[in-house]
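Case 483 in the screening queue. Each case pairs one protein sequence with one candidate compound; here the compound is pyridoxal-5'-phosphate. For every case the pipeline is the same: read the inputs, emit a complex structure as C-alpha coordinates, and attach any notable structural observations.

Predict complex for case 483.
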Amino acid sequence: MPNQLLIPVSEIREMGRAALHLVAEYYDTLAGRAVLRPITSAELRSRLDEPAPSTGLPFAGLLDTVRDVVQEFSRHNGHPRFFGYVASPGMPAAAMGSMIAAAFNINVTSWRSGPAATEMELLCIRWLKEMLGYPADAAGLLVSGGSMANFAGIAAARSAKAPGNVVRDGIVGAPLRLYASEEAHFSIRKAAAMLGIGTANLRSVKTGPDLRMDLAHLDRLVREDRDAGHLPFCVVASAGTAGTGAVDPIGAIADLARTHNLWLHVDAAYGGFSALAPSARAFFARIAEADSVALDPHKWLYLPVGCGCVLYRHPAAARAAFSENAEYIRVVGLEHDEAFAFWDYGPELSRPFRALDLWLLLKSVGTRAIGEAIEDNIACAKYFAGLVSATDDFEMLAPVDLSIFCFRYRPRGFAGDLDALNERVLLEVQRGGSSYLSNTSVRGAFALRGCVLNYRTTRRDMEILLEDVRNAVRSVHQSEPRT
Ligand SMILES: Cc1ncc(COP(=O)(O)O)c(C=O)c1O
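Case 483 output:
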Protein backbone atom coordinates (compact mmCIF):
# COMPACT_ATOMS: atom_id res chain seq x y z
CA MET A 1 0.00 0.00 0.00
CA PRO A 2 1.59 3.38 -0.93
CA ASN A 3 1.68 5.96 1.84
CA GLN A 4 -1.00 8.43 0.73
CA LEU A 5 0.24 11.15 3.05
CA LEU A 6 3.52 11.37 1.17
CA ILE A 7 2.86 13.62 -1.82
CA PRO A 8 5.33 13.80 -4.70
CA VAL A 9 6.79 17.24 -5.42
CA SER A 10 5.29 17.30 -8.93
CA GLU A 11 1.85 16.92 -7.33
CA ILE A 12 2.62 19.65 -4.78
CA ARG A 13 3.37 21.98 -7.70
CA GLU A 14 0.00 21.12 -9.24
CA MET A 15 -1.77 21.75 -5.94
CA GLY A 16 -0.02 25.13 -5.66
CA ARG A 17 -0.94 26.13 -9.20
CA ALA A 18 -4.61 25.25 -8.61
CA ALA A 19 -4.73 27.10 -5.26
CA LEU A 20 -2.92 30.15 -6.65
CA HIS A 21 -5.33 30.28 -9.58
CA LEU A 22 -8.22 30.40 -7.11
CA VAL A 23 -6.50 33.14 -5.06
CA ALA A 24 -5.71 35.31 -8.10
CA GLU A 25 -9.25 34.93 -9.42
CA TYR A 26 -10.57 35.93 -6.00
CA TYR A 27 -8.53 39.14 -5.92
CA ASP A 28 -9.55 39.85 -9.51
CA THR A 29 -13.29 39.56 -8.83
CA LEU A 30 -13.43 40.87 -5.25
CA ALA A 31 -14.57 44.45 -5.88
CA GLY A 32 -17.40 43.31 -8.20
CA ARG A 33 -18.86 40.83 -5.72
CA ALA A 34 -21.75 41.35 -3.31
CA VAL A 35 -20.19 41.97 0.10
CA LEU A 36 -22.33 39.16 1.51
CA ARG A 37 -24.74 36.80 -0.24
CA PRO A 38 -27.69 35.96 1.99
CA ILE A 39 -27.96 32.26 2.92
CA THR A 40 -29.26 30.28 5.89
CA SER A 41 -27.28 27.97 8.13
CA ALA A 42 -29.45 25.02 7.02
CA GLU A 43 -28.75 25.74 3.33
CA LEU A 44 -25.02 25.94 3.99
CA ARG A 45 -25.02 22.73 5.99
CA SER A 46 -26.83 20.97 3.19
CA ARG A 47 -23.90 21.88 0.91
CA LEU A 48 -21.22 20.70 3.34
CA ASP A 49 -22.53 17.98 5.64
CA GLU A 50 -21.33 14.45 4.98
CA PRO A 51 -19.74 11.68 7.02
CA ALA A 52 -16.00 12.07 7.66
CA PRO A 53 -14.34 10.66 4.50
CA SER A 54 -12.55 7.37 5.03
CA THR A 55 -10.67 7.65 1.73
CA GLY A 56 -9.12 10.68 0.07
CA LEU A 57 -10.14 12.57 -3.07
CA PRO A 58 -7.99 14.55 -5.55
CA PHE A 59 -7.00 17.99 -4.23
CA ALA A 60 -8.10 19.98 -7.30
CA GLY A 61 -11.66 18.69 -6.97
CA LEU A 62 -11.77 19.82 -3.35
CA LEU A 63 -11.10 23.37 -4.43
CA ASP A 64 -14.51 23.32 -6.17
CA THR A 65 -16.12 23.28 -2.72
CA VAL A 66 -13.78 26.04 -1.55
CA ARG A 67 -14.80 28.11 -4.59
CA ASP A 68 -18.52 27.30 -4.67
CA VAL A 69 -19.25 27.30 -0.96
CA VAL A 70 -16.52 29.04 1.07
CA GLN A 71 -15.78 31.81 -1.44
CA GLU A 72 -19.41 32.35 -2.40
CA PHE A 73 -20.86 32.38 1.09
CA SER A 74 -18.37 34.37 3.09
CA ARG A 75 -18.49 38.03 4.00
CA HIS A 76 -15.79 39.65 1.92
CA ASN A 77 -13.81 41.74 4.39
CA GLY A 78 -11.49 42.88 1.60
CA HIS A 79 -14.33 44.41 -0.45
CA PRO A 80 -13.80 48.19 -0.82
CA ARG A 81 -17.25 48.85 0.66
CA PHE A 82 -17.08 46.47 3.60
CA PHE A 83 -17.31 48.96 6.48
CA GLY A 84 -18.44 46.62 9.30
CA TYR A 85 -16.70 46.21 12.65
CA VAL A 86 -12.88 46.68 12.63
CA ALA A 87 -11.88 44.25 9.91
CA SER A 88 -8.72 44.28 7.87
CA PRO A 89 -8.83 43.51 4.15
CA GLY A 90 -5.81 41.17 4.10
CA MET A 91 -2.77 41.50 1.83
CA PRO A 92 -1.55 39.34 -1.07
CA ALA A 93 2.04 39.30 0.25
CA ALA A 94 0.74 38.01 3.57
CA ALA A 95 -1.42 35.38 1.85
CA MET A 96 1.76 34.02 0.27
CA GLY A 97 3.55 34.32 3.63
CA SER A 98 0.86 32.24 5.35
CA MET A 99 1.36 29.46 2.82
CA ILE A 100 5.13 29.50 3.30
CA ALA A 101 4.81 29.65 7.10
CA ALA A 102 2.51 26.61 7.04
CA ALA A 103 4.93 24.73 4.80
CA PHE A 104 7.98 25.47 6.98
CA ASN A 105 5.82 24.85 10.05
CA ILE A 106 8.20 26.54 12.47
CA ASN A 107 6.93 26.49 16.02
CA VAL A 108 8.11 29.87 17.31
CA THR A 109 8.21 29.05 21.01
CA SER A 110 11.79 30.21 21.52
CA TRP A 111 15.06 30.95 19.74
CA ARG A 112 16.17 27.31 19.67
CA SER A 113 12.81 26.20 18.15
CA GLY A 114 13.11 28.68 15.30
CA PRO A 115 16.29 30.77 15.30
CA ALA A 116 15.58 32.76 12.13
CA ALA A 117 11.83 33.10 12.83
CA THR A 118 12.60 34.37 16.34
CA GLU A 119 15.06 36.95 15.06
CA MET A 120 12.55 38.02 12.39
CA GLU A 121 9.81 38.45 15.00
CA LEU A 122 12.11 40.44 17.31
CA LEU A 123 13.06 42.63 14.34
CA CYS A 124 9.38 43.21 13.48
CA ILE A 125 8.66 44.10 17.11
CA ARG A 126 11.49 46.65 16.91
CA TRP A 127 9.92 48.14 13.77
CA LEU A 128 6.47 48.31 15.41
CA LYS A 129 7.95 50.15 18.41
CA GLU A 130 9.63 52.63 16.06
CA MET A 131 6.38 53.22 14.16
CA LEU A 132 4.57 53.99 17.38
CA GLY A 133 7.36 55.94 19.10
CA TYR A 134 7.66 53.36 21.89
CA PRO A 135 10.94 52.91 23.82
CA ALA A 136 13.55 50.77 22.05
CA ASP A 137 14.26 48.70 25.17
CA ALA A 138 10.62 47.64 25.60
CA ALA A 139 9.74 43.96 25.16
CA GLY A 140 6.99 42.62 22.96
CA LEU A 141 5.66 39.67 21.04
CA LEU A 142 3.05 38.79 18.47
CA VAL A 143 -0.14 37.21 19.77
CA SER A 144 -3.38 36.03 18.19
CA GLY A 145 -5.10 39.44 18.30
CA GLY A 146 -6.08 42.48 20.31
CA SER A 147 -8.06 40.54 22.91
CA MET A 148 -5.03 38.45 23.77
CA ALA A 149 -2.80 41.55 23.76
CA ASN A 150 -5.14 43.28 26.23
CA PHE A 151 -5.19 40.16 28.39
CA ALA A 152 -1.39 39.96 28.41
CA GLY A 153 -0.91 43.67 29.20
CA ILE A 154 -3.36 43.54 32.10
CA ALA A 155 -1.79 40.30 33.36
CA ALA A 156 1.56 42.10 33.56
CA ALA A 157 -0.15 45.00 35.36
CA ARG A 158 -1.67 42.61 37.87
CA SER A 159 1.69 41.00 38.69
CA ALA A 160 3.38 44.37 38.97
CA LYS A 161 0.81 46.04 41.21
CA ALA A 162 -0.90 43.34 43.28
CA PRO A 163 0.56 42.79 46.74
CA GLY A 164 2.81 39.77 47.25
CA ASN A 165 3.31 37.14 44.57
CA VAL A 166 0.06 37.04 42.60
CA VAL A 167 1.30 34.33 40.24
CA ARG A 168 1.94 31.97 43.15
CA ASP A 169 -0.74 33.00 45.67
CA GLY A 170 -3.46 34.60 43.57
CA ILE A 171 -5.01 37.91 44.58
CA VAL A 172 -4.79 38.37 48.34
CA GLY A 173 -5.97 41.31 50.42
CA ALA A 174 -7.94 44.22 49.01
CA PRO A 175 -9.81 43.65 45.74
CA LEU A 176 -7.94 45.05 42.73
CA ARG A 177 -9.70 47.75 40.74
CA LEU A 178 -9.29 48.28 37.01
CA TYR A 179 -10.49 51.40 35.13
CA ALA A 180 -11.55 51.82 31.52
CA SER A 181 -14.00 54.10 29.79
CA GLU A 182 -17.58 53.05 29.17
CA GLU A 183 -16.59 52.90 25.48
CA ALA A 184 -13.72 50.41 26.04
CA HIS A 185 -13.67 47.13 24.12
CA PHE A 186 -15.30 44.11 25.77
CA SER A 187 -11.98 42.25 25.75
CA ILE A 188 -11.06 44.36 28.81
CA ARG A 189 -14.02 42.88 30.68
CA LYS A 190 -12.98 39.42 29.54
CA ALA A 191 -9.44 40.02 30.78
CA ALA A 192 -10.82 41.13 34.17
CA ALA A 193 -12.86 37.93 34.32
CA MET A 194 -10.03 35.60 33.26
CA LEU A 195 -7.43 37.20 35.55
CA GLY A 196 -9.55 36.77 38.67
CA ILE A 197 -10.00 40.52 39.03
CA GLY A 198 -13.74 40.16 38.46
CA THR A 199 -15.88 42.22 36.13
CA ALA A 200 -17.46 43.91 39.17
CA ASN A 201 -14.01 45.41 39.84
CA LEU A 202 -13.81 46.90 36.36
CA ARG A 203 -14.90 50.50 36.89
CA SER A 204 -16.60 52.14 33.98
CA VAL A 205 -15.31 55.69 33.55
CA LYS A 206 -17.73 58.14 31.97
CA THR A 207 -16.92 59.83 28.69
CA GLY A 208 -17.36 63.46 27.71
CA PRO A 209 -19.33 64.78 24.73
CA ASP A 210 -16.43 63.71 22.46
CA LEU A 211 -16.76 60.13 23.81
CA ARG A 212 -13.24 60.30 25.28
CA MET A 213 -12.53 59.34 28.88
CA ASP A 214 -13.64 61.94 31.44
CA LEU A 215 -10.51 62.45 33.56
CA ALA A 216 -12.28 64.11 36.47
CA HIS A 217 -14.51 61.06 36.74
CA LEU A 218 -11.49 58.71 36.60
CA ASP A 219 -9.81 60.69 39.38
CA ARG A 220 -12.97 60.61 41.51
CA LEU A 221 -13.49 56.86 41.07
CA VAL A 222 -9.89 56.06 42.02
CA ARG A 223 -10.07 58.21 45.17
CA GLU A 224 -13.44 56.75 46.18
CA ASP A 225 -12.17 53.21 45.68
CA ARG A 226 -9.02 53.81 47.68
CA ASP A 227 -11.04 55.34 50.52
CA ALA A 228 -13.32 52.30 50.46
CA GLY A 229 -10.35 49.93 50.91
CA HIS A 230 -9.93 48.72 47.31
CA LEU A 231 -6.62 48.66 45.47
CA PRO A 232 -6.72 50.66 42.20
CA PHE A 233 -4.00 49.07 40.02
CA CYS A 234 -4.49 49.76 36.31
CA VAL A 235 -6.16 52.15 33.92
CA VAL A 236 -6.84 51.24 30.29
CA ALA A 237 -6.84 54.08 27.77
CA SER A 238 -8.48 53.35 24.42
CA ALA A 239 -6.57 54.66 21.42
CA GLY A 240 -9.47 54.32 19.08
CA THR A 241 -12.62 52.78 20.57
CA ALA A 242 -14.32 50.10 18.52
CA GLY A 243 -17.66 51.93 18.73
CA THR A 244 -16.83 55.41 17.48
CA GLY A 245 -13.02 55.54 17.14
CA ALA A 246 -12.64 58.05 20.00
CA VAL A 247 -9.06 58.37 21.25
CA ASP A 248 -8.67 58.87 25.00
CA PRO A 249 -6.15 61.56 26.05
CA ILE A 250 -3.16 59.30 26.66
CA GLY A 251 -0.84 61.97 28.11
CA ALA A 252 -3.33 63.28 30.66
CA ILE A 253 -4.24 59.72 31.66
CA ALA A 254 -0.51 58.96 32.07
CA ASP A 255 -0.25 61.92 34.48
CA LEU A 256 -3.18 60.64 36.55
CA ALA A 257 -1.82 57.09 36.46
CA ARG A 258 1.46 58.38 37.88
CA THR A 259 -0.31 60.34 40.63
CA HIS A 260 -2.24 57.24 41.69
CA ASN A 261 0.49 54.63 41.07
CA LEU A 262 -1.59 52.89 38.37
CA TRP A 263 -0.25 50.82 35.49
CA LEU A 264 -1.24 52.45 32.18
CA HIS A 265 -2.28 50.00 29.49
CA VAL A 266 -3.24 51.47 26.11
CA ASP A 267 -5.63 49.48 23.95
CA ALA A 268 -4.42 50.68 20.55
CA ALA A 269 -5.65 47.54 18.77
CA TYR A 270 -7.69 49.58 16.33
CA GLY A 271 -6.00 52.97 16.28
CA GLY A 272 -2.32 52.30 17.00
CA PHE A 273 -0.94 52.27 13.48
CA SER A 274 -2.64 55.55 12.63
CA ALA A 275 0.49 56.96 14.33
CA LEU A 276 1.94 56.53 10.82
CA ALA A 277 -0.54 59.09 9.47
CA PRO A 278 0.44 62.74 10.02
CA SER A 279 -3.13 63.80 10.85
CA ALA A 280 -3.40 61.27 13.71
CA ARG A 281 0.18 61.32 14.96
CA ALA A 282 -0.52 63.82 17.76
CA PHE A 283 -2.87 61.36 19.50
CA PHE A 284 0.17 59.19 20.22
CA ALA A 285 2.60 61.91 21.33
CA ARG A 286 2.92 60.43 24.83
CA ILE A 287 2.37 56.75 24.10
CA ALA A 288 5.93 56.05 25.31
CA GLU A 289 4.65 56.60 28.86
CA ALA A 290 2.29 53.62 28.67
CA ASP A 291 3.41 50.57 30.65
CA SER A 292 1.92 48.26 28.03
CA VAL A 293 0.23 48.61 24.66
CA ALA A 294 -2.05 46.34 22.63
CA LEU A 295 -1.69 46.61 18.86
CA ASP A 296 -3.31 44.69 16.02
CA PRO A 297 -1.33 44.37 12.80
CA HIS A 298 -4.42 42.46 11.61
CA LYS A 299 -6.37 45.69 11.73
CA TRP A 300 -4.66 48.84 10.43
CA LEU A 301 -1.59 47.15 8.99
CA TYR A 302 -4.10 45.34 6.76
CA LEU A 303 -2.76 41.85 7.60
CA PRO A 304 -5.11 38.86 7.49
CA VAL A 305 -6.53 37.79 10.87
CA GLY A 306 -4.30 36.12 13.42
CA CYS A 307 -1.73 38.79 14.20
CA GLY A 308 -1.91 40.98 17.31
CA CYS A 309 0.96 42.41 19.35
CA VAL A 310 1.61 43.35 22.95
CA LEU A 311 4.40 45.69 24.04
CA TYR A 312 5.71 46.00 27.61
CA ARG A 313 7.75 48.98 28.71
CA HIS A 314 9.30 46.91 31.53
CA PRO A 315 10.36 43.49 30.21
CA ALA A 316 10.84 42.23 33.79
CA ALA A 317 7.15 42.87 34.55
CA ALA A 318 6.12 40.68 31.63
CA ARG A 319 8.48 37.95 32.79
CA ALA A 320 7.07 38.18 36.31
CA ALA A 321 3.62 37.44 34.89
CA PHE A 322 4.50 34.71 32.40
CA SER A 323 7.90 33.16 32.98
CA GLU A 324 7.89 29.38 33.45
CA ASN A 325 10.68 26.92 33.98
CA ALA A 326 9.40 23.38 33.68
CA GLU A 327 12.14 20.76 33.43
CA TYR A 328 11.02 19.67 29.93
CA ILE A 329 11.59 23.18 28.54
CA ARG A 330 14.76 24.01 30.46
CA VAL A 331 17.29 25.53 28.07
CA VAL A 332 20.71 23.95 28.33
CA GLY A 333 24.00 24.90 26.71
CA LEU A 334 22.89 28.20 25.15
CA GLU A 335 24.10 31.76 25.61
CA HIS A 336 21.87 34.64 26.70
CA ASP A 337 20.33 35.68 23.33
CA GLU A 338 19.95 32.10 22.20
CA ALA A 339 18.18 31.16 25.44
CA PHE A 340 15.37 33.62 24.64
CA ALA A 341 11.85 32.17 24.94
CA PHE A 342 8.60 33.87 23.91
CA TRP A 343 6.72 31.86 26.55
CA ASP A 344 8.36 34.10 29.17
CA TYR A 345 6.41 37.07 27.76
CA GLY A 346 2.94 35.76 26.94
CA PRO A 347 0.43 32.98 27.53
CA GLU A 348 1.17 30.79 24.49
CA LEU A 349 3.76 28.03 24.14
CA SER A 350 3.25 26.75 20.56
CA ARG A 351 3.06 29.77 18.28
CA PRO A 352 2.73 30.07 14.50
CA PHE A 353 5.28 32.07 12.47
CA ARG A 354 3.19 35.27 12.50
CA ALA A 355 6.15 37.52 11.82
CA LEU A 356 6.64 36.24 8.27
CA ASP A 357 3.44 37.92 7.00
CA LEU A 358 4.36 41.10 8.84
CA TRP A 359 7.94 41.14 7.54
CA LEU A 360 6.82 40.42 3.96
CA LEU A 361 4.24 43.21 4.18
CA LEU A 362 6.61 45.81 5.62
CA LYS A 363 9.50 44.92 3.32
CA SER A 364 7.38 44.74 0.16
CA VAL A 365 5.29 47.87 0.76
CA GLY A 366 7.20 50.04 3.23
CA THR A 367 5.88 52.15 6.07
CA ARG A 368 5.49 55.29 3.95
CA ALA A 369 2.88 53.70 1.64
CA ILE A 370 1.06 52.22 4.62
CA GLY A 371 0.97 55.61 6.34
CA GLU A 372 -0.45 57.16 3.16
CA ALA A 373 -3.14 54.47 2.92
CA ILE A 374 -4.09 55.04 6.58
CA GLU A 375 -4.23 58.80 6.00
CA ASP A 376 -6.48 58.18 3.03
CA ASN A 377 -8.78 55.93 5.11
CA ILE A 378 -9.13 58.74 7.67
CA ALA A 379 -9.84 61.22 4.87
CA CYS A 380 -12.53 58.91 3.43
CA ALA A 381 -14.29 58.71 6.82
CA LYS A 382 -14.16 62.51 7.19
CA TYR A 383 -15.35 62.95 3.61
CA PHE A 384 -18.34 60.74 4.39
CA ALA A 385 -19.08 62.77 7.54
CA GLY A 386 -19.10 65.86 5.30
CA LEU A 387 -21.52 64.21 2.86
CA VAL A 388 -23.85 63.26 5.72
CA SER A 389 -23.70 66.70 7.32
CA ALA A 390 -24.63 68.30 3.99
CA THR A 391 -27.97 66.41 3.85
CA ASP A 392 -31.10 67.43 5.71
CA ASP A 393 -32.30 63.90 6.46
CA PHE A 394 -29.15 62.25 7.90
CA GLU A 395 -27.08 63.27 10.91
CA MET A 396 -23.69 62.37 12.33
CA LEU A 397 -23.87 60.96 15.88
CA ALA A 398 -20.20 61.15 16.91
CA PRO A 399 -17.06 63.04 15.96
CA VAL A 400 -14.70 61.28 13.54
CA ASP A 401 -11.35 61.03 15.40
CA LEU A 402 -9.95 58.30 13.14
CA SER A 403 -11.75 56.28 10.45
CA ILE A 404 -15.00 55.25 12.16
CA PHE A 405 -18.16 57.16 11.32
CA CYS A 406 -21.51 56.86 13.14
CA PHE A 407 -24.67 58.38 11.70
CA ARG A 408 -28.39 57.81 11.33
CA TYR A 409 -31.33 58.55 9.11
CA ARG A 410 -33.53 61.23 10.61
CA PRO A 411 -36.26 62.37 8.23
CA ARG A 412 -37.71 65.79 8.93
CA GLY A 413 -40.88 65.78 11.02
CA PHE A 414 -40.51 62.06 11.89
CA ALA A 415 -42.13 61.42 15.25
CA GLY A 416 -41.77 57.60 15.39
CA ASP A 417 -39.09 55.29 16.72
CA LEU A 418 -35.79 56.39 15.13
CA ASP A 419 -33.88 53.39 16.47
CA ALA A 420 -36.33 50.91 14.92
CA LEU A 421 -36.32 52.84 11.64
CA ASN A 422 -32.51 52.80 11.44
CA GLU A 423 -32.36 49.11 12.34
CA ARG A 424 -34.51 48.41 9.30
CA VAL A 425 -32.31 50.65 7.16
CA LEU A 426 -29.21 48.75 8.34
CA LEU A 427 -30.70 45.36 7.48
CA GLU A 428 -31.74 46.66 4.07
CA VAL A 429 -28.19 47.98 3.38
CA GLN A 430 -26.70 44.63 4.38
CA ARG A 431 -29.24 42.73 2.27
CA GLY A 432 -28.44 44.92 -0.75
CA GLY A 433 -24.87 43.58 -0.93
CA SER A 434 -23.26 46.70 -2.46
CA SER A 435 -22.04 48.14 0.87
CA TYR A 436 -21.88 46.76 4.38
CA LEU A 437 -22.29 48.72 7.62
CA SER A 438 -22.56 47.45 11.19
CA ASN A 439 -24.23 49.13 14.14
CA THR A 440 -23.46 50.56 17.54
CA SER A 441 -25.15 52.67 20.17
CA VAL A 442 -24.05 56.27 20.68
CA ARG A 443 -25.35 57.64 23.98
CA GLY A 444 -28.23 55.21 23.77
CA ALA A 445 -29.15 55.98 20.14
CA PHE A 446 -28.97 53.25 17.51
CA ALA A 447 -26.26 54.25 15.03
CA LEU A 448 -25.33 53.09 11.56
CA ARG A 449 -21.59 52.54 11.91
CA GLY A 450 -18.79 52.21 9.41
CA CYS A 451 -15.02 51.84 9.66
CA VAL A 452 -12.70 52.55 6.71
CA LEU A 453 -9.82 50.11 7.08
CA ASN A 454 -9.04 49.16 3.51
CA TYR A 455 -6.42 50.41 1.04
CA ARG A 456 -8.92 49.68 -1.78
CA THR A 457 -11.57 52.15 -0.54
CA THR A 458 -11.90 55.47 -2.39
CA ARG A 459 -13.97 58.64 -2.00
CA ARG A 460 -16.21 57.32 -4.76
CA ASP A 461 -16.97 54.30 -2.53
CA MET A 462 -18.08 56.71 0.19
CA GLU A 463 -20.49 58.37 -2.27
CA ILE A 464 -21.81 54.97 -3.34
CA LEU A 465 -22.30 54.08 0.33
CA LEU A 466 -24.56 57.09 0.84
CA GLU A 467 -26.48 56.18 -2.35
CA ASP A 468 -26.84 52.61 -1.02
CA VAL A 469 -28.17 53.90 2.29
CA ARG A 470 -30.63 56.13 0.42
CA ASN A 471 -31.80 53.14 -1.62
CA ALA A 472 -32.23 51.19 1.59
CA VAL A 473 -34.31 54.03 3.06
CA ARG A 474 -36.50 53.95 -0.06
CA SER A 475 -37.08 50.19 0.29
CA VAL A 476 -37.94 50.59 3.97
CA HIS A 477 -40.51 53.30 3.17
CA GLN A 478 -41.94 51.24 0.29
CA SER A 479 -42.50 48.27 2.57
CA GLU A 480 -44.39 50.37 5.13
CA PRO A 481 -48.13 49.65 5.30
CA ARG A 482 -50.06 52.44 3.54
CA THR A 483 -52.50 54.36 5.74
C1 LIG B 1 -10.33 48.74 20.38
C2 LIG B 1 -10.28 47.25 20.24
N1 LIG B 1 -9.67 46.51 21.18
C3 LIG B 1 -9.60 45.18 21.11
C4 LIG B 1 -10.17 44.50 20.06
C5 LIG B 1 -10.09 43.01 20.02
O1 LIG B 1 -9.24 42.62 18.99
P1 LIG B 1 -9.23 41.14 18.39
O2 LIG B 1 -10.52 41.01 17.63
O3 LIG B 1 -8.04 41.14 17.51
O4 LIG B 1 -9.15 40.20 19.51
C6 LIG B 1 -10.83 45.22 19.06
C7 LIG B 1 -11.49 44.52 17.95
O5 LIG B 1 -12.12 45.09 17.11
C8 LIG B 1 -10.88 46.63 19.14
O6 LIG B 1 -11.46 47.37 18.19
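Case 483 observations:
- Residues 343 and 349 are 5 Å apart (CA to CA).
- The chain has two domains: 106-365, 368-478.
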